[in-house]
Design brief:
transmembrane; single chain
Length: about 300
């Protein structure tokens, strides 16, 4: 008798759970969250792994190295691949194995000495990430990432401008990143530890302002890596963000290449509006080393100003 009641209770619990789960998912689908919910449901059965404070660290590190590797192959082994080399910005500069080893060495030690200890500390002191049942809405998912990028763009513009204008900061910190006048993919994180920690801290904490869903936060981290890597690849690819988005919103690799050539220009990492507002915008070169009219005009004006001064 008792066993029968217990068995009935178990069956009722399972059926009720299935019904509730179905209702939750149907509500998610009906509210336009279908694709995000499907992706978010991959966490089921992996909650211990996904909720770990180490998960976003390993996700971002693995994604960064995976994203950079194809461009490294193109730099080293694709020097005669016309289909990719025609998009190179500084055509007179080649990436060598010595440069790759140098940048990878600093990247490796930065990860071992700074990223790894920070991850261990996070594992010890940070509680597991709460995992909601529902995925974020599409509206939240999109606008919160865009807002976080805009906030970071302003933060880093100020940081970047300061570290160029204050000689001590440039000499002892930011000059590390400017060792190479022609950026290539591994230059993305070729940074002094202070700059690496600053960028990591700002990227991690910006989503806190908007109380983002974990899925939105992790997607934003990957999006930030994509935009940062794309700015350093040294190629003006036709499908790059600066060639897709309208109104010259994004600077991309051409703009950042110009920053490495003219270090007192183009301080914003992603967008162009702050540089245009504060008159630090320099028109970039294009694929194949083409210098457009607005760049030639800019260089003519700056030469005249120097003569007057």
């Amino acid at each position: 008798m008792t066993e029968g009641i217990l068995e009935f209770g178990r069956a009722l619990y399972i059926n009720t759970s299935d019904v509730l789960t179905g209702v939750v998912r149907n509500n998610a689908l009906s509210s336009g969250r279908s694709l995000l919910q499907v992706i978010w449901d991959f966490r089921l059965g992996r909650e211990d792994l996904v909720s770990s404070p180490l998960f976003p660290v390993f996700l971002s590190v693995a994604f960064y190295f995976s994203l950079c590797t194809p461009f490294m192959i193109a730099d080293i082994y694709g020097k005669k691949w016309k289909w990719i080399q025609k998009y190179k910005i500084q055509t007179d500069k080649e990436v060598t194995l010595d440069q790759v080893f140098d940048t990878l060495q600093l990247t490796f030690w930065n990860h071992v000495l700074f990223i790894l200890p920070a991850a261990v500390g996070q594992m010890i002191w940070t509680p597991p990430t709460p995992l909601p049942e529902l995925a974020p809405s599409w509206f939240e998912f999109v606008w919160q990432q865009i807002a976080s990028l805009i906030v970071f763009d302003f933060q880093y513009f100020v940081w970047h401008w300061t570290h160029h204008k204050v000689r001590f900061l440039y000499k002892h910190i930011h000059s590390v990143h400017h060792r190479y006048h022609s950026p290539f993919v591994w230059v993305t994180q070729y940074l002094h530890p202070w700059e690496l920690v600053t960028v990591g801290f700002l990227t991690t904490t910006n989503t806190w302002f908007f109380k983002c869903h974990p899925m939105t936060t992790w997607s934003y981290m990957l999006l930030s890596i994509v935009v940062s890597v794309e700015a350093h690849i040294g190629f003006d690819l036709p499908f790059s963000l600066n060639n897709i988005l309208p109104f010259g919103m994004i600077g991309g690799a051409p703009k950042h290449d110009m920053h490495h050539l003219k270090p007192l220009t183009n301080f914003s990492p992603f967008f162009n509006h702050w540089d245009k507002t504060f008159d630090s915008f320099c028109p970039p070169m294009k694929a194949g080393g083409v210098r457009p009219k607005n760049l030639l005009e800019y260089e003519r004006r700056t030469k005249e100003i120097k003569k007057v001064c």
